Amino acid sequence: MQQNYKVNELFQTIQGEGFYTGVPAIFLRLQGCDVGCAWCDTKHTWEIKADKQSDLILLTDRSNESERWANVTAQEIIAEIKRLGYSANLVVITGGEPCMVDLRELTQVLHEFGFKTQVETSGTYPVLVAPTTWVTLSPKVNMRGGKVVLQSALERADEIKHPVATEKDIEQLDALLAQIKSVDGKTICLQPISQKARATALCSKVCIERNWRLSVQMHKYLGID
Ligand code: SF4
Predict the structure, then answer these.
(1) What is the pLDDT along the chain (225 residues), one digit of tens a residue?
(2) N or C end of the chain: which has fewer CB within 10 A?
(3) Signed CA dihedral, 4, 225, 48, 54: sign only
(4) How far is ligand 1, taken at its centre, from the CA of residue 138, in Å?
């Protein structure tokens, strides 16, 4: 039986963060998250309310953020991407917390249709994706939902993208990295929170010292979604 996914949004843009910065991408936002980050900018994705179920076709109108979601298969998502005439070949599966569900079928089907896939996760759920899916883990530690970042998710991550405000955030990242066997082959990105000058200077300094990568949320500077 085909699996269904609860989609909140589907849109095409340029990836603004991390390893794939600047790459055209189709964003597939899944509904549902219980991690509870206070500063979350997608709180409308947290709850799956029965009375908010919708048709996928209605979710591609991005005029306002909405709690609506559509329950659709991977094939229906691909049909909608084709109907919309999207040209990007990277599909970024985000949320919400997309790893609350098993993403193996969705990522495999997208690969069969010629797409590359990237999953953006908090690392608090097992990462169930196709072997070649690029996994970006943005660790969410000590959030209201009481979740912990899983060692298995850290091990699977191709990229660890850490939001940074102060030195404490670098220490927190060091503690997480100490849990895994090796960071060899992983891209480590520091992302200054809210484009603050002090955080940007700190991230730049640490990236240079350690040969890590700076992620500046390019879309916020360009004023695109
Ligand atoms: Fe928001 Fe992501 Fe945190 Fe969930 S994990 S609360 S979607 S920032």
Answers:
(1) 899 999 999 999 999 999 999 999 999 999 999 999 988 989 999 999 999 999 887 776 665 679 999 999 999 999 999 999 999 999 999 999 999 999 999 999 999 999 999 999 999 999 999 999 999 999 998 889 999 999 999 999 999 999 999 999 999 999 999 999 999 999 999 999 877 899 999 999 999 999 999 998 777 777 766
(2) N
(3) negative
(4) 10
Q: Does domain 4-160 have CATH number 3.40.1260.10?
A: no
User: Does ligand 1 lie within 6 Å of residue 44's CB atom?
Assistant: no
Answer yes or no: pTM beyond 0.90.
Answer: yes
Evaluate: CB of 94 within 6 angstroms of ligand 1: no
Which residue in this structure is represented by tokens 């979601």? Answer: 69
Euclidean distance between CA atoms 155 and 123, whole angstroms? 10
Angle formed at CA 112 by CA 62 and CA 32, multiple of 5 degrees: 40
Q: Are strands 70-72 and 116-121 parallel, antiparallel or unpaired?
A: unpaired
Check pocket membership of 141 for ligand 1, CB cut-off 6 A.
no
